[in-house]
Write a structure and sequence with these properties.
Strand content: 25-35%
Number of strands: 15
Radius of gyration: 16 Å
Distance between the termini: 38 Å
Number of helices: 5
Order of helices and strands: EEEEHEHEEEEEEEEHEEHH
Shape: globular
Strand order of the largest sheet: 1-2-3-4-5-6-7
Structural class: alpha/beta
Oligomer: single chain
Largest sheet: 7 strands, mixed
């Protein structure tokens, strides 16, 4: 299998990352170049989708059987366009940050709070609540028992900055503080970051820019 880079294009093939206990499949869907991530346990076959963003047929083709859950990182519409169709086809249970659940027009079966551990057989994802891009955005941390942590950040952290806060200084301060104290202060540089749009990064690549982000305010 070619080395995983995380580079995908809308309409192009998925990128597949092979970890010791988990397979991560990344695909770009929809006009906003949204990333969706399928996590599959190697030992049990349990499957979890992060952000049913768009193009339900593309997402369903990744999961021919047994989708256990769909986790929506936040309430913005480009991250749930395919949610209703994917849930109808698979009967997967839905998860989202508690403060964003009302903004998602598909019932959230499991409201998620900061620090909650979501378990699907041997897949364990720790929720990190980050306020600023939306009130209830969550990042999801997978701690590989044999190596690098893997962090799915939705629209809260990208290469080159935190997520958009639409000119609202209070929202930026909240998101920046949350990203620094809950992510950069707790996780090592090798932590791999899977954002809601575009290319992947690592915390080590972004850490030197933190003060620049604070100074510019976005």
């Amino acid at each position: 299998m070619p080395d995983y880079t995380g580079d995908v294009t809308q309409g192009g093939p998925p990128a597949v990352r092979d970890l010791p206990a988990l397979t991560i499949t990344k695909v770009s869907v929809g006009p906003a170049d949204n990333n969706a991530y399928l996590l599959r346990s190697k030992s049990t076959g349990a499957q979890v989708l992060i952000d049913a963003a768009n193009e339900a047929p593309t997402l369903l083709a990744l999961v021919p059987d047994g989708l256990r859950a769909v986790i929506t990182t936040h309430q913005h519409g480009d991250h749930w366009q395919a949610l209703e169709a994917v849930v109808a086809a698979t009967a997967a249970r839905t998860h989202a940050g508690r403060a964003d659940a009302e903004g998602i027009p598909v019932t959230t079966d499991v409201p998620v709070d900061d620090g909650d551990v979501l378990r699907f057989d041997d897949i364990e994802l720790t929720a990190i609540h980050l306020v600023g891009h939306t009130p209830g955005s969550i990042a999801l941390l997978y701690r590989d028992p044999t190596g690098t942590p893997h962090l799915f950040t939705g629209d809260c952290l990208f290469p080159g900055g935190v997520g958009g806060t639409f000119g609202n200084k209070e929202a930026f301060d909240s998101l920046y503080e949350g990203v620094v104290t809950k992510i950069f202060d707790r996780l090592p540089d090798e932590t791999w970051v899977y954002p809601g749009h575009g290319k992947d990064t690592t915390l080590g690549a972004e850490r030197p820019q933190l003060e620049e982000w604070r100074a510019r305010g976005w």
